[in-house]
Design brief:
By secondary structure, the protein is mainly α. The chain is built from five helices and no strands. The protein is globular, with a radius of gyration of 13 Å.
Length: 100
């Protein structure tokens, strides 16, 4: 783990880190760059993600984690760690709702 990864994931739960890694991999695929070229705390607008690709990425996140998310998720939560936190929170909420 490099220093950048350690800083970006400091304080994140194991689930949150797994979501962050998955989102980063999908982001790299959308940008057609190796995942190693992206910072762990990538800001979507700074790395060149188009609005069309952003909506596609949100759809993939919804499918991967069986969630219903806002189509503007990446604008409300503009970095990979923020999206990972939001997705993890939504998954916890969905699990709590299923238990209740």
């Amino acid at each position: 783990m490099n220093d950048q990864h350690a800083a970006a994931t400091a304080g994140a739960s194991e689930d949150e880190r797994a979501v962050q890694d998955w989102v980063l991999e999908r982001l790299a695929a959308h940008l057609e760059v190796p995942v190693e070229q992206l910072p762990e705390d990538a800001v979507f607008t700074e790395v060149g993600l188009s609005s069309i690709r952003a909506v596609e990425l949100v759809t993939e996140i919804e499918e991967q984690y069986d969630l219903e998310l806002s189509p503007v998720l990446l604008y409300d939560h503009p970095s990979v760690p923020e999206v990972a936190r939001r997705v993890t929170d939504a998954r916890r909420g969905a699990a709590a709702g299923a238990d209740g």
